[in-house]
DNA mismatch repair protein MutL
Amino acid sequence: DQVANQIAAGEVVERPASVVKELLENSLDAGATRIRLEIEAGGRKLIRIVDNGHGMGRDDALLAFERHATSKLRSSDDLLSIATLGFRGEALPSIASVARVSLETRAVEDEVGTMLEIAGGNLLRVEDAGLPAGTTIAVRDLFFNTPARRKFLRSEQTELGHVAALVTHYALAHPDKHFELHSSTQSLLVAPAVANAGERLYQIFGRETFESLIPVAAELDFSRAGLPEPPPWKRGEDYEAPEPGFIRLTGFVSKPELQKLNRNSIYVFVNGRLIRDRLILHAFTEAYRNIIPPTSYPVVLLFLEMPPQEVDVNVHPAKTEVRFRQGSFVHDFVRDAVRTAQMNARP
Ligand code: ADP
Ligand code: MG
């Protein structure tokens, strides 16, 4: 129902960049290899995404805007525990409840496509249409029906900055895909597919950054996770042994000479998902302690992989927080891997 959709929207849709995140992830889920984004007025007026993914048939297109779990929320108590609910299948209904959305899609195997329009959660129009395979979604007038939320939006330039940072993150994580980001006045990113993360870094940040990067590659057996197993008589209900598998860190960090004054050049992905985590940031601070001043930051592009059971990426649906089961093990692994890379790179 509409109220539940708007409540969910409060969690999923904070600002234009969170809409972009959901739309991008859907396009990638649909196997798209080309993704083009257009933004007007920092995303407040228009967010448009065009992908060449597998598209949707008419039934799926309509279903995409139905909330999967309609009766999850019953009382205001439930609202408090909303962060623990699964948010799968809630992004599009949430977005459509606080904006005017139009969808154009055609499944690769269908001859005819579908066009539909939803505003404030109300379906206004469904039609057949001749369309290329893939999906185009336009989100107009974000928060037009929720003025309180609209007030929290920052300047167009700030919102656009968040969108650009986000698209950059995804482009870095998927070098084999073509990404474009345009605003009404300028092209912010045009990144054709390349062979690997290194080439993508060059493409986006240029030669100087590229040439000051040190490769990182480390791997550890997760069963060596720091915490010793408690003796049997101390194991409570919630004790779980570490999962078998490996923890792996690959990517690049910058040499000490290349420093930035903010953390905007730190990109970390955990199991393919962009994260921003205090524990991991702290691991970098430690790795660079006494090497660069505490007021500056390295450039970092790292991919951390670990058994999925070891990390909860759903702490908050819209934010990029994670929770590691073996936090200090992960922290020390990252710190040591970065230090080792620094040491190996010394002439
Ligand atoms: P979720 O991604 O968690 O399934 P969403 O609300 O983000 O939920 O999307 C609902 C559904 O709509 C998806 O499961 C998918 O089937 C379909 N969908 C959304 N965007 C696209 C797209 N760009 N291409 C193909 N299918 C899509
Ligand atoms: Mg989704």
